[in-house]
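Propose amino acids for all 215 sites.
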């Protein structure tokens, strides 16, 4: 099984598959915090492109937070996995409680990562969304919808690893999908990394500052 030393190493390898983006106009690389930012940093550096974040939060199934029943993104974007919601029989109150908690966390991260700075303008741009991997794909779908609402000229997704199901969902929604590994039997994204320790807010802020300082 192909594996990556850590997220930054995965980003360096992923950058080799998306080098053609350097030829596209008004290129912006957006990392999905927190784990997607170290990957996106390496991609942005290789492409000599600006780096920013797109704030997205997974909506964990009540009692089983590792299972995504949906996701939210900046711009009041809400994506629900209707199959999980329907078959799981999730009542409205616990579902709403998860939504409120994640909306609060989304706002907190916006203040930490961006402060009062405005996000990069996406209208008419070439946007490359980067994460550390896709399992259900719900989080990335919310990110895609958030970006699409701003009218980019070209929208791509690049990840080191993806489940086959998530890859198919993303491919149908973007202009170009890129992954180093697409697995039919993906148990978890973390199994493809030697070091999959949690990315901290501090590391996200450090990488964003470093990327901006170099431009």
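Proposal:
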């Amino acid at each position: 099984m192909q594996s990556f030393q850590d997220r930054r190493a995965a980003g360096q390898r992923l950058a080799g598959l998306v080098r053609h983006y350097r030829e596209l106009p008004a290129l912006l690389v957006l990392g999905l915090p927190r784990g997607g930012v170290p990957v996106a940093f390496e991609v942005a550096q290789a492409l000599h492109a600006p780096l920013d974040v797109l704030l997205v939060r997974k909506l964990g199934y009540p009692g089983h937070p590792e299972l995504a029943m949906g996701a939210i993104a900046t711009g009041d974007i809400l994506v629900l996995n209707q199959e999980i919601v329907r078959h799981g029989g999730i009542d409205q109150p616990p579902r709403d409680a998860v939504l409120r908690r994640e909306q609060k966390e989304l706002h907190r991260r916006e203040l930490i990562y961006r402060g009062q700075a405005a996000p990069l303008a996406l209208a008419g741009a070439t946007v490359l969304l980067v994460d550390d991997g896709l399992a259900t794909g719900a989080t990335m779908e919310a990110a895609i919808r958030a970006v699409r609402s701003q009218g980019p000229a070209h929208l791509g997704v690049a990840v080191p690893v993806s489940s086959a199901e998530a890859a198919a969902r993303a491919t149908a929604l973007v202009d170009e999908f890129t992954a180093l590994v697409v697995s039919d039997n993906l148990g978890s994204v973390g199994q493809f990394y030697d070091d999959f320790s949690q990315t901290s807010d501090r590391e996200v802020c450090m990488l964003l500052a470093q990327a901006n300082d170099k431009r």
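The beta strands are 27-31, 51-53, 56-61, 64-73, 77-80, 126-130, 154-163, 176-183. The mean pLDDT is 89.
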